[in-house]
Amino acid sequence: MKNTINLYRNAFPASQQRASALTIGNFDGVHLGHQQLLERVVKVASQKNLAPSVMTFLPHPREYFALREQRPELVPTRISSLRDKVTALANAGIEQVFLNRFNNKFASLSAEQFIEDILVRRLNTKWLYVGVDFRFGNKRSGNIALLRDASSHFGFEVETLEDVLDAQNQRYSSTELRNALAFGDLDRAKSYLGRPYEISGHVIHGKKLGRTIGYPTLNIRAMPRCALRSGIYVVSVKGLDGQILPGIASLGVRPTVESDGKVLLEVHILDKTVSAYGKLITVAFLHHVRDEEKFPNLPTMIDAIRNDERIARNYFAVHGL
Q1: Three-state DSSP state, 211
Q2: Do 198 and 235 contact (CB within 8 A), yes or no?
Q3: pTM value?
């Protein structure tokens, strides 16, 4: 059940928020492993009358270090936007999210500074839940032993967790979830997430080509380096008229009609015309139809779109919404 959530950017002083039961991580995707971890945070927070809280980062630390070392090929793709991440954390029962800008200043903090300035003074941490191999501070110099030493001095508790494993005894991993999305393997992604993969966004104005060929679309800007493979997908859409609506969507750069290289998510709603500009919608990806293609001409592209529509209708006839 989604609850009210407070998003604090760059760790506001502790006087502005409740004492925290805190865990730390990137939480990209908020997969089932994350959800089990968060369930423990919420439970302990309730027992100790603390605010269940998450500390996360922007950009991803791996992105920061990859770009600093001029290795852009090591920058991870993004499973979820900040909006979708915060929504998933709220759905898991988290009440406070501390979003820290991961930059040179933050990366240069000593382990001792991280504990005293961030955990204690800014985040008002009273209970901390981290992995047994958790490292922090400049050059990853801080570890669990240092946290336990500091906890008795500063008055917080430390609890550690082992890897969270799936039914096949494999560790839940955001990297494996990214791999599934990169191959358009939505069933595998759903097994990691416990739900269909989703992207949300506000509907923006496009060039309105779709309506001229009988396929008007709702357009959403895709986040940079979106983990999901570009292509055509059967989707469902929430956020319009209080209904879940069936659709067919294209995620990509539209090479047949565009050359600017910007990634856009275009969604055609089946059998319904809606006025949606400016509305926040959530698109759930249900089935990968095909990869994005550059067609030699518009008629060829329209034929392909008609076939995509037939596939979508067949999907909903079998699976429903």
Answers
A1: helix
A2: no
A3: 0.90
